[in-house]
Amino acid sequence: MDTTEAATSSAASPGKEPRTARGRETLRKLLDAAAKEFGDLGFHAASISGITRRAGTALGSFYTYFDSKEAIFSALVRDMSQAVADAAAAAMPQGVTGVAREQEVLTAFLDFARSHKEIYRIIDEAEFADPASYRAHYEGAARRIAARLDDAEKAGELVPGDNEVRGWAIMGANVFLGLRYGVWDESRPAEEIAATVAALLRDGMAAR
Amino acid sequence: MDTTEAATSSAASPGKEPRTARGRETLRKLLDAAAKEFGDLGFHAASISGITRRAGTALGSFYTYFDSKEAIFSALVRDMSQAVADAAAAAMPQGVTGVAREQEVLTAFLDFARSHKEIYRIIDEAEFADPASYRAHYEGAARRIAARLDDAEKAGELVPGDNEVRGWAIMGANVFLGLRYGVWDESRPAEEIAATVAALLRDGMAAR
């Protein structure tokens, strides 16, 4: 998962941010190992020793960066949330706006879900293990969509409307399309799914 | 939660279906108590004695109808899934079809989410505690939407399209709108949210 150096550093518990490139590398290894450990076993069965074993680091280096299993779980949810946002941002070519931009974002998200199948299990378990991060993840995603729609509306590309509600609707659609056509079943091209949704967002489905 | 007598009876573990009205009543009490117990405490912390205490029944009557905590949790997920379907079905006036019908369904679902806030926690926890029921719940909901769209398409009300994908998109939108405007914040009228979504489904949002 690609995140910036700054984002990786800020994943550490307060006062434990790495100050060297090597420290950031270890922190990154721990986060990637945590994604596998929590993804495979779930929050309750996952253990710190399981994470350090998967990361190939000493148990002590876990505590160099994190205070607890809860702390690395929260850091992981924020890290994954950022990775989803980064994947969406990377999928937006300059000058592609409005519905076409949402189509690119959905295509990229379906690809992302296929290559990071553990993300659903981890984000969804946050509803129980870390409700604040769960809520922040979805509120952030819906807000980013609404902001893009606001821009497109100002540019005259979209019919004025309630972009907050549209944002939540589009995000919810994307989440379940990612589960259905990304995690559960990869047999259909991501582009085909995104094209169907884009047609719906562009022109609706009522016969005229 | 209203379900038919047959549905309540079939919630029992195999061979333990109640044969009297009084038995069905006890089973119903146990399911309603289980919704509170699992909703408040989550699957792991919930207990059979907590369920019978809330239901005001003897511990023995739990085992008259259910084999285990897992069994009543699965029964509860199926029961809630049926309650969501029943609420949607009750919201469809004769002759209202196509996008207008989806608008009625979303309005009813937002109201349902507001009065059954525990449903998200329980269905979402099924992703971990009972993955088969989790999947069946969402597949069933998406399939029902797709079937309604197929009917409306045949009647010439909708532009032909991939109703399976449309069904998953609409269901996902409804799930997150229910979380955002039903469970987390009830300040906006359900009708207003549903009208925004209906406008999007009817005509899309691209400026013409």
UniProtKB/TrEMBL annotation, chains A, B:
Residues in domain HTH tetR-type?
24-84
Instruction: Tell me which UniProt keywords the record has, alphabetically.
Output: DNA-binding, Transcription, Transcription regulation
Which residue intervals are annotated with compositional bias (Low complexity) in the record?
Answer: 1-13
Which residue ranges does the Swiss-Prot or TrEMBL entry mark as DNA-binding? Answer: 47-66
Coiled coil located at which positions?
A: none
* Domain of life from the UniProt record: Bacteria
The record's listing under InterPro entries reads: Homeodomain-like_sf (IPR009057), HTH-type_TetR-like_transc_reg (IPR050109), HTH_TetR (IPR001647), Tet_transcr_reg_TetR-rel_C_sf (IPR036271)
Q: Where is this region: Disordered?
A: 1-23
Give a GO molecular function annotation for the protein: transcription cis-regulatory region binding
Signal peptide from the UniProt entry: none
Q: Which PROSITE patterns does the entry mention?
A: HTH_TETR_2
Database matches in Pfam families:
TetR_N
The name this protein carries in UniProt is TetR family transcriptional regulator
| Organism name | Tsuneonella aeria
